[in-house]
From TrEMBL:
Annotated GO biological process: carbohydrate biosynthetic process; dermatan sulfate proteoglycan metabolic process
Gene Ontology terms for molecular function: sulfotransferase activity
PANTHER family attached to this UniProt entry: CARBOHYDRATE SULFOTRANSFERASE
Annotated protein name in UniProt: Carbohydrate sulfotransferase
Gene field: Chst8_1
Amino acid sequence: YRRLHARDTRLSEFNRTERRAMLGSYTKVLFVRDPFHRLIATFLQGMGISPSFSSFVQEVLDSGMHNGSAAWKPVVSLCRPCLIQYDYVVMFGFLRQELGHLLRRAGLPAGSLPPELTDSQVHWTYRWLSEQMFSELSAQQKKQLSHFYRWDLAAFPFSGSFLSD
């Protein structure tokens, strides 16, 4: 199909037969991360112009599902896990273990991973950051965020997410 090679063609623009042919020829990997951790990372990277995390979260909530940045939109709305049958779903926090498995499946040595991937340090850091940032939010913001990310929270096992309550 000629459209298959167009740069800006969205998957939704293909008919079912075209999608099946195209997606059937790829190994599909979806990387997922706790949505609250994604918000923290986006804020820390300066992608929001807000002076505080609470005001940044309010910007996210005000932007809604359709006007928001891909950096904080729910993964379910971006990657369509109900439409696409992914071969692998890799959870952030288990990257070293999961990427090692993927490398072996691809025929590459698992030792190809960079040594600085230390999941336990990442877990501890994000746990501490989450506690600090979550305490800045109002009860209403917490409730709205849980609702905003409800489909991600239902689709993926983000055990211990601050938004799961």
